[in-house]
Amino acid sequence: MRVEAEREYGDYVEARAARLVRFAYLLCGDWHRAEDTVQNALTKLYLAWPRLTRTTAVDAYVRRIVLRVLADEGRLARFRRERPHDTLPEPPAAPDATDTLGERIAVIEALRLLPPRQRAAVVLRFWEDQSIEQVAEALGCSIGTVKSQTTRGLQALRGLLGDRVSVSSERSER
Amino acid sequence: MTGLNELLERAVGDQPALSVTRETAVAAGRRAARRRRTLAVGTCAGVLAVAGVATVALGAGGGGGGGRAPAGGPNTMGLPVYPVPALPAAAGVPGALQRPDLVGSDPLLSHFTVDTSAWPLSEATYMSSDGSETVSAGGLTITVSRTRDAASLAANPELTQLSASPGSVVPNGDPGTTGDPGLIGSPGTTDQPGKTEKPTTVGGRPATLTTRTETGGKYRHYGLLWQPVDGLWVGMSVESATAEAELWSDVDALHLDRTGRCVVPFRLTDLPAGAKVLGCVAGVPVPGQADVKFAFSSLLVGDGRGDQASVSIGEITRPDTGGDVGPNYSPAPLPPPNRTVNGHPIFWSSSRPMGFISDDFDGVPLSIDVRGSYREPQATQILAGLKLSANLIDPKTWPSDPIGR
């Protein structure tokens, strides 16, 4: 890669790596795996970098790589080495509103209990603030599937997190 | 009640210190690119193997450890090695060993050479930046630097995340270690699986040898960091499918007392007022490869204050075509030429990167990217004065000075 392009790639990594790792963490529930996954994704990005020119498109491209790497390695399904449940178990204990650590654990636990595609749809939609069309493209599925996966994911999260989460059904359908 | 976005943000609020950095990402990318490239040419380059050259290099005064003393590693007799295409010698110019202070001070000079690589290669790429000079050749990367950081990064970028501890293999009195605790950890231990680290010597000087198994376990990475003389650092990165002996073979092939001229297969006869050479990347193909006609080379020229033009051949970055990218992305064809400069039809892109671009400029991909206040007139001036060498393989035939009439 030419020197300038490599510098631009480095600028991108510097600016985006932390958020990409957070994205991967929400999907896999393990910081080490998240970093490993993002490092793999960024290596693939390095090889593709000379062909990519738009930062926004690069973000979408890297998110797709992260999703694919996680899916390929079974990490989406093996969220924290555990398998998704067909039925939702008992919700995690509701922490006090001021219990930040407890809240983090509860949210991550709740995400863990979602099937992989629901989890990815919810994270892309509500944390990455992606449109339904963008989520569909990222997940390689139809808009209808995104809507249904998002709705089910939200319902499950509400059941698990109780009244700590507020998301309008309107937003989930938009 | 809290919005989901806010809840998710809080859930990632305990993110630990990031181990993915610009340096680790670039280093991993370079390794992947080298693997891809080397695997692509492995069969062809295999016929260029020259058994026993490492021994000859050592006997001829090689050895990166101080320039003359033999390396401290195992005997390298019998290892197949591959010639690294060299830059033309810069007669009378002292090498890094004699004048560490000159390393990275002139973009048109490389103050070290390497004769061979233990891995097959299709080309060697020489680069010079402020304070550091690098050559990449197949699975081998060597950075010779006035600063410890740059050399450390070349030797083993992942080590930037390790904690320093007593017993680190750092020569006494090294000012580069002050305030820089994260580069070398305790010998024999690392905080990452599959890695080892141990002290060693190169030419009698203390050094740190790190090893790591690549993902998938197919290749082994060796990193070596040492200071052959005060004020000079050498970082070496070697990928090997076999043994550590390959690393020491590469050490033996390193000459810190020889200097090469950074040359490119073109000449710029007309530059904007005040412009000079700011950077040089010389890509030198291994001769005799039927399917290799040229390598990537680039000159950065400018006024040193932000007005710059990068003239490159061998690879091009296509301008933004407005389309999205994805896993199955393939680059769109270049738009048709919209300018003619000196009889050459060529496309001018006013989007990023701004400049001229052609995938067939007398048979070679070529681009001139401009920055700062440089615009089409400056790019046109440079392109109009560009003289491409007839021979794109042999650096001895390239202009000794890449600018000027």
From TrEMBL, chain A:
GO biological-process terms attached to the record: DNA-templated transcription initiation
Domain RNA polymerase sigma-70 region: 13-73
InterPro entries, A to Z: RNA_pol_sigma-70-like, RNA_pol_sigma-70_dom, RNA_pol_sigma-E_actinobac, RNA_pol_sigma70_r2, RNA_pol_sigma70_r4_t2, RNA_pol_sigma_r2, RNA_pol_sigma_r3/r4-like, WH-like_DNA-bd_sf
Pfam families from the UniProt entry: Sigma70_r2, Sigma70_r4_2
SUPFAM superfamilies: Sigma2 domain of RNA polymerase sigma factors, Sigma3 and sigma4 domains of RNA polymerase sigma factors
Keyword hit for Transcription: yes
Molecular function in Gene Ontology: DNA binding; sigma factor activity
Key words of the record: DNA-binding, Sigma factor, Transcription, Transcription regulation
Domain RNA polymerase sigma factor 70 region 4 type: start-end pairs: 106-157
Keyword Transcription applies: yes
Matches recorded under Gene3D superfamilies: 1.10.1740.10, Winged helix-like DNA-binding domain superfamily/Winged helix DNA-binding domain
Matching NCBIfam families: SigE-fam_strep, sigma70-ECF
UniProt family annotation: Belongs to the sigma-70 factor family. ECF subfamily.
Protein name: RNA polymerase sigma24 factor
From TrEMBL, chain B:
Transmembrane segments: 39-60
Tagged with keyword Transmembrane helix: yes
UniProt-annotated stretches for the region Disordered: 157-214
Keywords linked to the UniProt accession: Membrane, Transmembrane, Transmembrane helix
Record keyword Membrane present: yes
Name of the protein this chain belongs to: Uncharacterized protein
Record organism: Rugosimonospora africana
Source taxonomy: Bacteria, Bacillati, Actinomycetota, Actinomycetes, Micromonosporales
